[in-house]
Amino acid sequence: MKPDVFHPLARLIHWLMAVLIIAMLFIGVSMVGDLSLRHPLLIDLHKATGLALLVLVIVRLCLRLTLPHPPLPTDLPALQRIAAGASHWLLYGLMLAMPLLGWAMLSAGGYPRPLQLPAIAPHDLQLYAVLRQAHGWAGYLLFATVLVHLGAALMHALVRRDGVLRSMWPGPVRRGE
């Protein structure tokens, strides 16, 4: 039998990651546009948060694949079901790819990595340039996907009123909701 709501740990990680991802998008944009002395602090914050997100997305994927989760509403049209599944896997892929691209970019550029992590790409400045551009474009795609995800959540909450947003809402869920 499928539950009505996501597991509390899955909900906690979802919302923690949501806050961190939004923060990362702002930090990333600030880093690109900030040439002041705060820039190294932003870079260190970006690296540390990226590493935390990498750990969290791995945990989150494990939870998603092992814990039962609520089904989509039965009256949801087939195309919307497909879009929901595809957009969720795109989010998971981007949430995994972004920190890995950042780690590889730092490795290829010869830059220090958080916690002295090993290099995952050879030191190569041309590869660094490609990875930096890929990291930037993936960030834009992640931002757009997050906006679509937010729009869909609001559509479920405000238009359809079908409980989809409530199933991932943080905190205790009262019976009968």
Automatic annotation (TrEMBL):
It is a multi-pass membrane protein. The keyword Transport applies. The keyword Magnesium does not apply. Keywords: Cell membrane, Electron transport, Heme, Iron, Membrane, Metal-binding, Transmembrane, Transmembrane helix, Transport. Its cofactor is heme b. The chain crosses the membrane at residues 12-33, 45-63, 89-108, 137-159. Residues 6-171 form the Cytochrome b561 bacterial/Ni-hydrogenase domain. It is found in: Cell membrane. It comes from the Bacteria. PANTHER family: BLL0291 PROTEIN (PTHR30529:SF6), CYTOCHROME B561 (PTHR30529). Belongs to the cytochrome b561 family. This is Cytochrome b. It comes from Pseudomonas promysalinigenes.
